[in-house]
Amino acid sequence: MKDAILAHLRYGLGKDASHSSVYDWRMALSHALRDRAVDHWIPSTQTTYARKAKRVYYLSMEFLIGRLVEDMAANLGATEEARAALAELGQDFDTLVRDEPDAALGNGGLGRLAACFMDSLATLGIPAMGYGIRYEHGLFEQDFVDGQQIEKPETWLSQKHAWEFERPEVQYSITFGGHVEHHDGRAHWHPHETVFATAHDTPVIGWQGRWGNTLRLWSAQPVKIFDLASFNRGDYLAASRSEALARTICRVLYPDDTTETGKELRLKQEYFFTAASIQDLIRRFLVTHDDIRRLDEAAAIQLNDTHPAIAGPELVRLLVDVHGLGMGEAIDLARRCLGYTNHTLLPEALERWPEWLFGRVLPRHLEIIREIEATQQAEFAGSPRILDHGNVQMGELAFIMAHKVNGVSALHTDLVKQTLFSDLHRIHPTRIINQTNGITPRRWLHTCNPALSGLITGAIGDGWVADLEQLKALKGKTGDAAFLSDFMAAKRHNKERLSNWVQQTLGQSIDPDAMFDVQIKRIHEYKRQHMNILETIALWNEMKANPGAGWQPRVKIFGGKAAPGYHVAKEIIHLINDVATVINNDPATKDLLQIVYPPNYNVTMAEMLIPAADLSEQISTAGKEASGTGNMKFALNGALTIGTLDGANVEIREHVGAENFFLFGLTAQEIMEARKQPGFARATIEKSPRMQRVLQQIAEGRFSPGDASRYHGFVGNLWDHDYFCVSLDFDNYYDTQRRADEAFGHRDAWAAMALTNTAGMGWFSSDRTIQGYARDIWDVGPADAKTLEKTG
Ligand SMILES: *Cc1c(COP(=O)(O)O)cnc(C)c1O
Known about the structure:
Layout: H1 2-12, H2 22-50, E1 55-59, E2 63-66, H3 69-75, H4 79-88, H5 93-99, E3 103-105, H6 109-124, E4 128-133, E5 141-145, E6 148-152, E7 165-176, E8 179-183, E9 186-190, E10 193-205, E11 212-222, H7 228-232, H8 236-239, H9 241-248, H10 264-288, E12 299-304, H11 311-322, H12 327-337, E13 338-341, E14 352-354, H13 355-361, H14 363-379, E15 387-388, E16 391-393, H15 394-400, E17 404-407, H16 410-420, H17 422-427, E18 432-434, H18 441-447, H19 450-460, H20 481-506, E19 515-520, H21 529-545, E20 554-559, H22 567-584, E21 593-596, H23 603-609, E22 615-618, H24 630-636, E23 640-643, H25 649-656, E24 662-663, H26 668-676, H27 680-686, H28 689-699, H29 712-720, H30 726-745, H31 747-760, H32 766-778, H33 785-791
Parallel strand pairs: 1-4, 1-12, 4-11, 12-13, 13-17, 17-18, 19-20, 19-22, 20-21, 22-23, 23-24
Antiparallel strand pairs: 2-3, 5-6, 7-10, 8-9, 10-11, 14-16, 15-16
Helix pairs in contact: 1-2, 2-5, 6-32, 10-11, 11-12, 11-14, 13-14, 20-31, 21-22, 21-28, 21-30
The chain binds pyridoxal-5'-phosphate.
Pyridoxal-5'-phosphate is lined by residues 108-109, 112, 521, 602-603, 606, 628-630, 633.
């Protein structure tokens, strides 16, 4: 390892050890680790080709990866060796780890799920490729100025990405626009714009290096890099015009995963990466097979939400226009290859494109969608339409072109059947299935929480890392006082680590003995961060009114970004920061109640906050959170959940036991009913003096001195609309928080409940989720059991 690092430093970076920066050392370490990754990766690919094994193609607009050094070293079993080698070279492993920028090619849960799935596919030895976009600028960086979010462009690629291999030879033409002619019994698409898609490959190595898969991200290149004629005329801008246009396609990640921008560029991005991926997988198939009609035997294509739903028409287009299949046959074959994962019921998040826009960018695909529509209507008269009121509905398209459609938690899947796709479900009663989300235990316990991970391994061995159900064995320890004390010592260690970080980065002192109550996720009204901050104000009021009531000290920790155009979400951020300014500086309560909101929540921050949490806030309006995965990370790391019966909370509660979960709030069904009453919010708030008082304080400018009207719109909206039903759950939420206080006061009982959470979370490994997809959707398995034995 030491030699490898020095060799990379010298020959890869052209540096000698005495003149190397932290960046140089990190790159050298990364490349030394990458070499080892390659030694697992290439044999995996060879085996897959040799056995003509079926591959999974996971198409996702987002991969929220985070850092890779620590993860890669851990999966390769090389962490200690790297640490020791670096120490001999006078370098500190952890310092190098911290130097790596997050690869933030995603917004939140959906992108993080894709990253967890890649880890599990490799760990399970299932041949797979993740396909996405190599955004030049990932998710924006968040900062706070006067309590308000400002966005700065993110520049993860300003330093070289240590893990990727650029593949200039893997390049496809992606075309847009123009018109279609029909002659010789064929369609001929004459596009007016072409860009190249170029592959960038990152090896993804599973636990203990058993297997290696590929994350292939596409960047856009101009067909003509440079117009020399314009340049020679002195028109330098025109000379690089085509380059600039092509580059815009992979320039930025759209910073919003719940509303559609309606931008042509977004449609182009979706088609760009999907078309490149489909061309790539067909080319690969034809290397080892000669009958394209058997594509489904070698390729399972999974669509992570509707963003890549154009895969259906694109595959049909290639099968018909290039490979000469009949339309009906092509549609059937495409359907056998495709699966679609639905992630949301929120109507504003369902992708729809105006037909005129769609037809202008993808004229041939619009024709094919009409054929798909006609085939569907011929077979199932009255079926819901893909083309409706002048729109192309991507949800219906994805559903009709997939042989399986899955929801991401039991409750969400039921609601997909009952509401979103009820008519299609009646026609295709076996198509919708459930695959409850999961998280990779490698990143979300083993590496992010060494204190707890070490304790667990000491007690039950390290088999749990690749077989998380083994955590069940910890249930036997919930009555073991010595073990519980070690368990709480690990938590305490993580809380101190976080407290130190908060002190250093925010200059704020927090008490590691207080309850750490954490809500970190995208800021969205349905996730109800505003309910949390209103409850915080109510608690503060109560503390001031009854100073002698023996209050449990609390630190309320928030983290999360708002989409730049989402006004209410930004108001919620502003309010949290305003309330923090007042409450944190109140001498009467500052030792009892603190609010911490570090800017720029990302994967790396999650890895520090989650192990330090006592209480996990999962308080969405029932029926709105499809699954959640943050909820799983917390419970796995020994936090108790305060939550509604929403998404995977329902299943988490079943697995950890109702007595170890702070449940409150209306059910999805009750919410749907209550919301029908006009004026429900006003009527409810009038009956809650506690909520009324809080709203009045906000409206009077208690938290915005000198700007009393700042939150008038916000407060008025709660009284008059309250679409996300904060009013309906508020009092119950407040009371349940006090039950949590009470429980936290009994530290031994709390420790047993927390350990029961960890012990019960084994089912939520993304390894289990991927096994479900492999069995129920993809019909794939590990490529080569013997290889697994040999290298494992
Ligand atoms: C897990 C994760 C999410 C998803 O969190 P939810 O609470 O499920 O919304 C979002 N962002 C990051 C950085 C994550 O690690």
